[in-house]
Design brief:
The protein is mostly helical. The protein is 72% helix and 5% strand. Strand 2 and strand 3 form a beta hairpin. The radius of gyration is 18 Å and the shape is globular.
């Protein structure tokens, strides 16, 4: 699949190119050590080299490519890279959830449950992009509501990478094991409805369980293409 055009409203051409290349790299369509030519990419997207350079800088900053004199070399995401991404996400959510303990989270819980409702509809219609987006929105809502500027800055530096990994993983799950997405919905619902119980230990347990399961799902789906390049 291509990067959803509905997610690109207001994006510059360079950002659009970065989003598409990011998805290709994470899905294994652009394998490690592949040389990306600015001229070829500009031709493929029907543009000049300037937006391509903009895209390359973004992807280099995310550690997905290495810039070289005549273009760029794909680094990709190794299992270790993916583990680190999940580590940072889990640390962030562990931290922000503590800020919700002993607070009235009624409005937040309602918002989260509305997102889960949309995930259920997306699953029913096999809408990969919408399911991924609402899954992402659920986690981003937790970060935004915490109101911690530096945490939000860290999150924003990873958000496109996180969203794209979610998209690639959802695509694989819908194709091979859609029951996992039903489990994801149930666990999101349980977590949302636990937010008003003032039980930090239970919330932390649910976060750890969620990321453990998500790690396993990503290892079985997104990273399978990476392993094939090494065999």
């Amino acid at each position: 699949m291509k990067y959803p055009t509905t997610w690109l409203q207001g994006a510059s051409l360079g950002e659009r190119i970065a989003c598409e290349l990011r998805l290709q790299i994470i899905r294994g369509m652009q394998t490690p050590d592949t040389v990306l030519s600015e001229n070829q990419i500009a031709t493929d997207f029907g543009t000049s080299r300037s937006p391509v350079r903009e895209a390359m800088k973004v992807l280099s900053g995310e550690g997905l490519i290495r810039l070289e004199r005549m273009g760029a070399v794909v680094i990709g995401m190794t299992p270790g890279d993916m583990e680190e991404l999940f580590d940072v996400r889990m640390l962030i959510e562990h931290f922000v959830v503590q800020r919700y303990v002993l607070k009235d989270n009624t409005i937040l819980v309602t918002t989260l449950n509305q997102m889960i409702d949309k995930m259920e509809v997306a699953l029913k219609h096999r809408d990969i992009a919408e399911f991924s987006l609402q899954d992402f929105n659920f986690h981003e809502a937790l970060v935004l509501e915490a109101g911690h500027t530096r945490i939000l800055h860290t999150w924003n530096g990873m958000r496109q990478l996180i969203l794209t990994v979610m998209l690639a993983a959802t695509e694989q799950r819908f194709a091979s094991n859609i029951e996992e997405s039903q489990v994801t919905i149930r666990k999101h619902r349980t977590f949302a409805n636990t937010l008003n119980q003032a039980n930090a230990q239970e919330l932390s347990r649910l976060i750890e369980e969620h990321y453990r399961d998500t790690r396993n799902a990503v290892n079985d789906s997104v990273l399978s293409s990476y392993r094939k390049t090494l065999s």
